[in-house]
Specification:
Number of strands: 12
Low-confidence stretches: 1-29, 144-154, 257-268
Pfam families: CBM39
CATH superfamily of one domain: Beta-1,3-glucan-recognition protein, N-terminal domain
Protein name: CBM39 domain-containing protein
Organism: Anopheles dirus
Structural class: alpha+beta
Helix content: 10-25%
Distance between the termini: 83 Å
CATH architecture of one domain: Sandwich
GO molecular function: carbohydrate binding
Keywords: Signal
Length: about 270
């Protein structure tokens, strides 16, 4: 009788006919030991359960109930919310089942089991009991990126500086140690025309409105055989010069691949 009822429920969840259904008892060592179902809750409403994609899963289904009461006595819990859904769609490497309308609160109890369909066979787990605690709820501040990019309402510059520092490290990691903060204004016989390299570069920046905030971010400037070289405070500052000065300044990136044409921003 128990197997018959289970077969009816799962055939409904997965949308299979009796002719297509071959029901089996749970076989944890062979099937369910290879993947795990995860549950995440949202506020004020929303529930998501998912499992990672696997060659053993063609369809992933869930039978889930939510109630309030003593989790040690299931017969005393009123199961007033339920979810019977399945999916064969893979999203970001996962089978995801989501119900935005279900409201779940801390202190309640979740009773669920999940099923997978593979090679004309439905595999069904045993029911599991889950007490709803704060850890089950999605909190954006728990996200690593969110926690590393705080923007204080009273001090937005602090958040911007922190974000800039994170981007700087990411760029250095991607570009490698060979990436520098140097740029070059090409100018033949620069030593005959430029008395103060730093002032020369800063005056160039002042000619372009979008580069004026970067005037003080020029750390050093020196005369070279073929122009005036200078170093920006950060890699991000360097990329800003290349992008914001486009079509308005002549500037060369010395880090450009020698096998390719150096990055040059031409005058209009």
């Amino acid at each position: 009788m128990r197997l018959l009822l289970g077969s009816i429920v799962i055939s409904f969840v997965l949308g299979l006919t009796k002719a297509e259904l071959k029901f089996c008892r749970p076989n944890f060592p062979m099937i369910f030991g290879k993947f795990k179902a995860h549950i995440q809750l949202r506020e004020p409403s929303g529930l998501m359960i998912w499992t990672s994609n696997s060659p053993l899963i063609e369809t992933f289904g869930v039978e889930l109930y939510v109630g309030r009461g003593n989790p040690c006595g299931l017969h005393k819990i009123v199961w007033d919310r339920k979810l019977l859904l399945n999916t064969s769609v893979i999203t970001d490497g996962k089978f995801i089942i989501q119900a935005d309308e279900i409201v779940v609160q801390r202190g309640e109890t979740i009773l669920y089991r999940y099923s997978v369909f593979h090679e004309d066979t439905v595999w069904q787990s045993f029911f599991r009991i889950l007490s709803v605690t704060d850890d089950l709820f999605y909190r954006p501040e728990r996200n690593v990126c969110y926690s590393q990019c705080p923007v204080e309402q009273n001090n937005p510059h602090m958040g911007a500086a922190r974000l800039k520092d994170i981007l700087e490290r990411k760029i250095e990691k991607c570009a490698g140690l060979q990436a520098s903060k140097h740029l070059l204004f090409p100018l033949e016989n620069a030593n005959k025309f430029v008395a103060d390299p730093l002032t020369y570069i800063q005056d160039k920046f002042r000619q372009v409105e979008s580069l004026r905030p970067l005037v003080d971010n020029v750390v050093t400037a020196d005369l070279t055989n073929n122009g005036v070289g200078f170093r920006m405070r950060t890699l991000i500052d360097k990329f800003k010069v290349l992008e914001l000065g486009k079509y308005q300044l002549d500037v060369i990136d010395p880090d450009a691949d020698s096998t390719e044409e150096a990055t040059t921003i031409q005058n209009v």
